[in-house]
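User: ok so my PI wants both of these folded by tonight, can you help

Assistant: No problem, let's get them done. Here's the first:
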Amino acid sequence: MVLNDPNGSVTEMSGTMDYLRDPIAMTMTMPSPEDPAITMETVMVDGVMYLNMGEMSQNMWVEATGFTEASDPIGEMRDFSQAITEVVHNGPVDLDGVPAEHYTVTVEPSLMPAGTLEPGTMLPETVTYEIYLDGEGRPAGMDIEIMGGSVITRLTNFNEPVTIEAPPADQIISFEEFQGGR
């Protein structure tokens, strides 16, 4: 995933998702927003998020509870399906070496199911996505430009085995311990 914010900052993230678990488990690696030279690693499993920020967290995993779901690009596509007002099929494309069908999808956020968006979320009247489906109809990519920024998402390696586990207990500190050490 690549995030381009309105100020010209670019953030690249990569990760793995296990859709066979409930709730979904995931890993993600990205540069720290505070210092792009620092790589942050995230593991989310069984409703708990663990974040390793290298030296910023003394190379330990900071535990944060209360997270019931991993960021789910496919689930997000399902969430806005009820708010779709237009779909245009643009035809076949090569998406980073993957044959895909390209669609432009227009959504009206006001039509999304209650509770989908956080209260107070500011969105334009319509949002347009570029969606790419692979040969099996799975989402291979999604591009969106919104509020001066953009998000480019690519989904690959479907059905590959993954193992996502919590870090070892002796490498985990609480959020309170992390805050006290700063």
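One down. Here's the second:
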Amino acid sequence: MKPIRVAVIGVGNCASSLVQGVFHYRATGSADGLIHDYIGGYGAGDLEFVLGVDVDARKVGKDIADAIFAAPNNTTVFHSEVPATGAKVIKGCILDGVAPHMTTAGERGFQVAEGPEATKQQIVDALIEARAEILINFLPVGSQRAAEFYMDCALEAGVAVVNCMPVFIASDPVWAAKFQKRGLPIIGDDIKAQVGATIVHRALSNLFSVRGATVERTYQLNTGGNTDFMNMLDRQRLTSKKMSKTEAVQSSLAQRLADENILIGPSEYVPWQKDNKICFLRIEGTQWGGVPMNVELRLSVEDSPNAAACVVDAIRCCKVALERGESGVLIAPSAYYCKHPVEQFSDDTARQMLGVYIAGRAEAAE
């Protein structure tokens, strides 16, 4: 079975965790930490990274195996022996992909590589030359124009997409129709973590609902020290991110909360946390007789490995779709792995739908 050929836009912490993990599982043969051991016959180690795209001078021109360990990446190194892939990181197109404050933050920020930015045709040619099958979008939050630029490139190059960031592509009917027409599958938008703030918040909110308690108000405040949190210091870049995370929680409630009673989103950048993300979550509600109750939770996770577990599954689902000749938005994988899918389902329902989809039974199309 040939490996799945993957191109990566944004060789940051998430890409580092994904690449490390692929070689970790290839070397160990372990299934620990995986959501699915195999999907369509493909294991977590059956990925081949064929192209990287970034704009940071410390990464451009390097082999992906070296670029994933370059600053400002600061995620946990759990598999340091990543062999050369033979795939270089090329300079991409910036557009709105780099917030101004990220270029004045020294080592912790972005250092834009000298030279001209890539044109659309150059990215398309690079994808075709690399024979990429699936493009992974790891651009920073708020990169609306940049994300759309790369989606156009994927469509022209004939490459499927996993949209891991909160620019709405798969959940936008116009973009979804473009992928359908081009005969390409897409999964999105905004990848969930394996066991992260959003999925825990959804689970607790659902627990209130199924046990007959009413959620009156809730918040989720997050801190972290990676470039994602630094990037989000520019609050103007947060519109789609807050919408994505808020809707993911709202959809798990028995009744939607008024805007003033729900706050979901990043809170602060704490440099020394590095890729560690800490979530402070509170749910206030009422139970029997209208008596008040509340739950408070503190969750600490390594942010990027937490996402990689879902990304590697989404990639394999995309590959299965390519082999089946499916196109457009993959409903079940998007619902299970993403915060802002085209249609929200409960986590239990999404998991059942995903199982049906992976098995390839006819019900997956209903």
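Residues 362-366 have pLDDT under 50 and may be disordered. The chain has two domains: 4-192+305-365, 197-303. Good luck tonight!
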